[in-house]
Design brief:
single chain; 263 residues; Deoxyribonuclease I, Chain A; 6-stranded mixed β-sheet; 8 helices
């Protein structure tokens, strides 16, 4: 039985981060499948060459200036889906689905939202989650091995933020947002990190403005969620801090979450 390393990473502009990511993949953590969010470029602008030089093929769903998701894989990508025929899911480029080996991987960049629950940005986030949950429920009826990963922009429990009192009522830690993420989990997904480490505090995002990475003042908002058949084979899962603890090149405000899954 072989292990596959799969990572989710909000890169916060792929063109600004490509050299750092390529160095990470080449010298530090050569994952088999890298799922990226917040590309901030269209498909044609995506810097494929450094990934191809490292043996990855790439599937992209990009958007000018904002959003955008991609999957880079050393394993053959058998199928790619970028249009989901649901208006709220297709309004912005926030999803890409690929089939690799016998797994379906749905790479998600959930909307950030807004603290005012009447604001259109918050309502969009709620609607996006409802549509995503309905889609994943249908997907799971067809496929046994499903992974839903990415930047979900929600910290689910108190342990997932460095200080719950500070985050109370803030975007990403509101009860309405948590309820939507819990509803997604209920369609048959497991939070692989929390399943493996039920009592461990670890974060995937730290605010640039407060230099929070150096005091570990962060949030866990990036996830690898999986159906029973995959979650049971998750052998290890870690936050790789190497890319985030850089001063140059400038890092993303997120760190990659890396899971090792037995096939």
């Amino acid at each position: 039985m072989s292990r596959v390393k799969i990572a989710t990473f909000n890169v916060n502009s792929i063109r600004s981060r490509v050299d750092l990511i390529a160095t990470w993949l080449k010298e530090k953590n050569p994952v088999d499948i890298l799922c990226m969010q917040e590309l901030k470029c269209e498909d044609a602008q995506f810097p494929k060459a450094p990934f191809e030089a490292l043996g990855y093929e790439t599937a992209i769903n990009g958007e000018k200036r904002y959003n955008g998701v991609a999957v880079c894989s050393k394993l053959p990508i058998q199928r790619v889906k970028t249009v989901f025929d649901v208006e709220v899911l297709d309004r912005q480029k926030r999803l890409i689905e690929v089939e690799i080996e016998n797994m379906v991987i749905l790479n998600v960049y959930a909307p950030h939202g807004e603290s005012d629950e009447t604001d259109p940005k918050h309502l969009f986030k709620m609607d996006f989650y409802d549509a995503l949950t309905a889609y994943v429920a249908k997907l799971h009826k067809v496929y046994e091995k499903v992974i839903v990963l990415g930047d979900m922009n929600v910290a689910l429990e108190d342990i997932d933020v460095y200080n719950p009192e500070i985050f109370e009522g803030s975007v990403g830690f509101m009860e309405s947002e948590k309820a939507k993420l819990r509803a997604l989990l209920k369609v048959g997904l497991h939070d692989c990190y929390r399943q493996k480490y039920p009592d461990t505090q670890a974060f995937t995002w730290w605010d640039y403005r407060t230099a929070g990475i150096w005091r570990d003042e962060g949030m866990r908002i990036d996830y690898i969620l999986a159906t029973d058949a995959v979650a049971a084979q998750c052998e290890e899962i870690t936050v790789d801090l190497w890319t985030r603890r850089r001063r140059t090149p400038t890092p993303s405000d997120h760190a990659p979450l890396v899971g090792e899954i037995s096939l």
